[in-house]
Design brief:
The complex is a heterodimer of chains A (868) and B (211). Chain A is an alpha/beta fold and 868 residues long. Chain A has 35 helices and 33 strands. In chain B, a hairpin with a 2-residue loop joins β1 and β2. The chains are: A alpha/beta (868), B mainly alpha (211).
Chain lengths: 868, 211
């Protein structure tokens, strides 16, 4: 999902502020240049753009970033700023017919900070500024609603007290509430407001020694100063230093007239999504609260009605809402979340943002927006992230089995789903047992930890468990927080759970089970089942993703191979849209239990000049054929057996192996091994009727002489005909191999580059280290490395990649493929695509994310070029 | 408020060590020292003293609580903090603590998940505006809790240690390491807060009401 939506730039406004005019520190929404977010900040530029696009936005102005004093020590308000602010407020008064600081119709404003880049420590929004003991009663009269005036006043006191004066807002609110409750119902409005006012002021004074000023302009000056102070706060300064953002940028301040959802009738306030954020289904979705102010909907203090109901009831108000939502979507090119207020039948937009949505909705919305002509193809892809595509592929319970489980009475309880995901495992009742079971013989048991509540000492047991259930607690309990941090399914608040530690048993609603029994839990729905439920690959609903990925494929024009070992996995990779597959012969042998016999032969002939591999060629032929058959004509790239790679190290007793037969450490140490694989594949290719010859590459090649030797082995085994049945090549994992790529490509026409292995070798790190975020992220944060070993930004890596490009380009028919391991980042995929590569191998689950990433990279470039 | 005298301080160390042993079920002197941040030597002599009084069993490097020891932790806190619990200022402190705790857990949840209409999805951290707002809220709450702990640390000196740890976690977060919000493998803000919550419950003789 992208962050804040940016509507395409409206026609630039004419240049303002002629030479010789007063320095202008403020810009009204209707006169600024929306492309100047450097001057107006993100929020300010958005409001200027919306106003100038003719959208109903309450009037206001922006104090530009240049007015922000950017010296942390001893800064002061810029000269003349408040005089300008006064003139701007007068403009708003004329525009709205209200007056700032007096009745009968008082003008209230909101004040918010708005830097170009968001950062923590910046001032939050202050609403209802301009209220005091004079204007609050006027507001009560104007709205004929004392309770509303009291709410509004408390809210203002709380925000101003907390944000400008540094008191605890919650305490202020409590004091205000207490004072209010002490007032007789139907009593005098002025007395009630005064009581609430002094409660608020006293609470603030007790904590900070200050009071909210009565003069609204002094309130406003205080709020503006607070924004500047927040820019110069220790937190914001630290953040900018860490992120490398200049302190000189400064923040803008946005001052805007408040509108009231409870002033007269029909009035109200609401939030609308232009589509359903859970499913992406077309049609407005949201809530409306008649006679309510914005905060009421957000804070959930009052129950709003569904937007569709409100629209039926108040057709005049919502008459053109649909149309407006549609044109807004067109303007922003995304699904939106619109905060709005209706004041006496007049609609105002308070905020329009790119809507948050589920992964499913993101995919559907992007595809639909394309259909509706609201998005260009490149924009469509930008609206979906690789993470969202990955999320849709998370394995989940087989729905049919879940249905049967419910019907068959296996549903034990339904608690509160606190951390999503599906998992089955053995029930364990205490953390010590979870730890010891998980550690036993390295054979990982799948464990579900059941606890009445969770204490910090349970943490060590939560780490090895696959999922958790607690009897108490809600969605914001410690257990839920820990489960989400670990990304493990969790059900809390399961009140029917009883645990009997003495007897090592537990019950849901009186139905007793023993520790060690299988349970399945769904961390979204909160359902807990007896017994294990199998996980399946989620069926991708709708054809939205398929269509988006077709766009991506067309744009990128890449060949993407997915990794597979078994025929099932081959089908899985192809179903995800892979052009073909890659398979490691070593993995196939291990899976089929044929690796041991090969090792025995190799170790038994450690000293032999010619190694007799027996029927090994036939074994390869037998095992490769089903893989080729499953590929059904799609290209298959095999990697020769590698006994020293880090995957093999884990499988075999590698150090011992190399002591007994050191030749196995060299790629061509036993040439017979390569010949047999070439021979086996050619037999398999013939049997499977392959039209595209399978590839076989040998790993860890560093030298052109090795490549030539491989070429000769192939010729010897296959003959030197024009169309050999197996295409042989090399896999490069070392910087040396990369540097000599041009010469190596003189001997063979095919190179695969293992990016992770190459980068690990370059940095001298174990390859495994490059698969995880930590500890490298932390190491980089400490400033230890100027480039990320997992990216391509490193200068040395960049030069090596350039070597490959040059080598490939130097002669037609040469093929260089890029092998990526683990999650395929959008940045790295884009970098290789831009460098000129078009053949990639990825893990099977990463086929779809890689297609998206490459498509995005391909579409982003020409677009960017064209618009500049 | 009256500060503690030497004998009480020593007793407090004993209690802290016993508490760690009871909570961890099976542990060792070095882990006790680490979890309680009591110097190794002091932790070692505390364990010896507790073994002599029959509250823990210490053999071959393992320290385990006895049933008496378990019962004593709560009983100990009950007597140790009996007067504290009765003070009117404390009930106000507890109310503030609970309010901060509730808001803290909500804010960490907002960091982890984002509301999408009626449900919530994992925060993919693609909206810097949202993240900045949540971090600001979190920082304000930690600052308030630090102040809150400061008020109690005169009476319960060990509370000052949580304050230090919270501030250390906050510093890591400020330096850009966002794992320090809630990663349970680290001394993140949530990890420290969670332990502090437990410690406060024991001091006040309250049962955990949520999970």
């Amino acid at each position: 999902m992208t962050g804040t939506a940016t509507p395409p730039a409206v026609k630039p406004a004419p240049p303002e502020a002629e030479a010789g005019e007063d320095p202008r520190l403020t810009v009204a929404f209707d006169e600024g240049d929306p492309s100047r977010s450097d001057l107006l900040g993100g929020k300010g530029a958005g409001l200027v753009r919306m106003t100038q696009a003719g959208l109903p936005v309450p009037p206001g102005f922006v104090i530009v970033t240049e007015a922000c004093p950017a010296t942390p020590d001893g800064w002061a308000m810029p000269d003349g700023l408040m005089a300008e602010v006064r003139r701007r407020v007068e403009e708003i008064e004329e525009n709205t017919g209200r007056t700032f600081g007096s009745g009968p119709s008082p003008l209230l404003v909101s004040v918010r900070s708005g830097a170009r880049v968001s950062m923590p420590g910046m001032m939050d929004t202050i609403l209802n500024l301009g209220l005091n003991v004079h204007t609050a009663p006027a507001l009560a009269d104007a709205t004929a609603d004392l309770s509303f005036a009291l709410d509004t006043y408390s809210r203002f006191g709380r925000m101003y007290g907390e944000i400008v004066l540094g008191a605890d807002g919650e305490l202020i609110a409590e004091e205000a509430e207490r004072a209010r409750a002490a007032q007789p119902s139907g009593g005098d409005a002025d007395a009630a407001l005064e009581a609430v006012d002094s409660a608020i002021q006293d609470a603030i004074e007790e904590e900070t020694g200050e009071r909210i000023p009565d003069d609204p302009f002094r309130q406003l000056a205080g709020a503006i100063e607070a924004v500047f102070a927040s820019w110069n706060s220790r937190r914001a300064i630290t953040y900018r230093e860490v992120q490398g953002i200049s302190h000189e940028l400064g923040t803008a301040v946005v001052v805007q007239a408040m509108v009231f959802g409870n002033l007269g009738s029909p009035s109200g306030t609401g939030v609308a999504f232009t589509r359903d954020p859970a499913t992406g289904e077309r049609g407005l979705y949201g809530e409306f609260l008649e006679r309510g102010q914005g905060e009421d909907v957000v804070s959930g203090t009052k129950t709003p009605e569904r937007l569709a109901q409100a629209a039926e009831r108040l057709p005049a108000v919502f008459d053109r809402f649909d149309e407006m939502a549609a044109s807004l979507e067109e303007l922003y090119g995304d699904m939106l979340d619109i905060e709005f207020t209706v004041e006496r039948g007049r609609l105002y937009l308070l905020q329009v943002r790119s809507a948050k949505r589920t992964a499913e909705a993101a995919i559907r919305v992007a595809a639909d927006l394309l259909d509706e002509g609201k998005l260009a193809p490149y924009e469509t892809l930008e609206n979906v992230s690789s993470a969202q595509v990955r999320f849709t592929e998370r394995p989940r319970f087989d729905e049919a089995v879940v249905r049967r489980a419910v019907e068959g009475g296996s549903l034990l309880a339904t608690g509160i789903g606190a951390s999503p995901g599906n998992v089955s495992g053995k029930a364990v009742l205490d953390p010590e047992r979870a730890v010891s079971l998980a550690a036993r013989d390295g054979a990982r048991e799948d464990i579900v930890l059941l606890r009445p509540t969770t204490s910090p000492e349970d943490l060590h047991g939560m780490v090895p468990a696959r999922g958790f259930v607690t009897a108490l607690g809600g969605a914001t309990s410690h257990a839920a927080v820990v489960a989400r941090a670990l990304d493990k399914p969790c059900v809390v608040g399961c009140s029917s759970l009883e645990i009997d530690l003495e007897q090592r048993r537990f019950a849901f609603g009186g139905r007793w089970l023993r520790e060690g029994d299988e349970l399945s839990l769904d961390g979204s729905t909160g359902q807990i089942f007896a017994g294990a439920i199998p996980l399946t690959q989620a069926a991708i609903s709708g054809d939205g993703l398929g269509r988006l990925l077709e766009i991506a494929d067309e744009a990128a024009g890449c060949r993407i191979l997915g990794r597979a070992t078994t025929p099932d996995q081959v089908e899985g990779a192809l179903a995800r849209g892979a052009t073909g597959v890659t398979a490691r012969l070593g993995d196939i042998l291990a899976t089929e239990g044929r690796l041991e016999e090969l090792l025995d032969r190799l170790l038994g002939q450690a000293e032999a000049e010619r190694v007799d591999l027996g029927d090994f060629e036939q074994v390869i032929a037998e095992l490769a054929e089903p893989v080729l058959a499953a590929a059904d004509g799609a290209p298959v790239a095999f990697r020769a057996v590698d006994l020293i790679g880090d995957e093999a190290m884990e499988l075999l007793d590698a150090p011992n192996l190399l002591v007994r037969n050191p030749r196995l450490a060299l790629p061509l140490g036993v040439p017979e091994l390569i010949s047999a694989q070439i021979g086996g594949l050619s037999i398999a290719a013939g049997a499977a009727g392959c039209t595209i010859p399978p590839q076989l590459t040998v790993r860890h090649i560093n030298d052109p002489n090795e490549a030539q030797a491989i070429s000769r082995l192939a010729e010897a085994r296959l003959g030197s005909g024009a169309a050999p049945q197996v295409k042989v090549g090399v896999t490069v994992t070392s910087p040396r191999g990369a540097q000599l790529a041009a010469q190596i490509l003189g001997a063979v026409d095919l190179i695969w580059v293992e990016v992770r292995g190459l980068q690990a070798a370059q940095f001298g790190y174990p390859a495994r280290l490059l698969l995880t975020r930590e500890p490298l992220d932390d190491y980089r944060r400490r400033g230890m490395l100027s480039a990320d070993p997992r990216g391509t930004a490193d200068e040395v890596t960049g030069r090596l990649i350039a070597d490959f490009v040059a080598a490939r380009m130097s002669k037609a028919g040469r093929e260089v493929g890029i092998r990526l391991t683990g999650e395929v980042g959008e940045e790295i995929a884009g970098a290789f695509l831009r460098a000129g590569f078009n053949t990639f191998a990825v893990d099977s689950e990463e086929v779809r994310p890689a297609r998206l990433a490459l498509g995005k990279a391909a579409l982003a470039e020409p677009h960017r070029g064209a618009s500049e | 408020m009256r500060a503690m005298d030497q004998a009480e301080l020593r007793e407090d160390v004993l209690f802290e060590v016993l508490k760690v042993v009871v909570l961890k079920k099976m542990t060792s002197v070095p882990s006790v020292a680490e979890a309680s941040s009591i110097p190794m030597g002091d932790a070692e002599s505390a364990v010896e003293e507790l073994a002599a009084s029959g509250d823990v069993v210490s053999t071959a490097g393992h320290v385990m609580p006895t049933e008496e020891g378990e019962a004593r932790v709560r009983a100990y806190a009950d007597t140790r903090y009996a007067t504290l619990r009765e003070e009117p200022a404390v009930s106000r402190w507890v109310a503030r603590f609970e309010s901060l705790n509730r808001r803290f857990l909500e804010t960490v949840s907002e960091w982890q998940t984002i509301a999408v209409g009626d449900s919530r999805v994992a925060n993919d951290h693609s909206d810097p505006d949202y993240d900045a707002r949540v971090i600001s809220k979190l920082e304000a709450l930690v600052t308030r809790m630090s102040k809150q702990l400061g008020e109690l640390s005169d009476r319960v000196p060990r509370m000052a240690r949580y304050r230090e740890r919270l501030e250390a976690a906050l510093e890591r977060l400020d330096a850009g390491d966002e794992r320090y919000v809630s990663d349970p493998h680290l001394d993140s803000i949530h990890t420290v807060w969670f332990e502090m919550h437990e410690a406060v419950l024991i001091v006040l003789g309250k049962e955990r009401e949520d999970a």
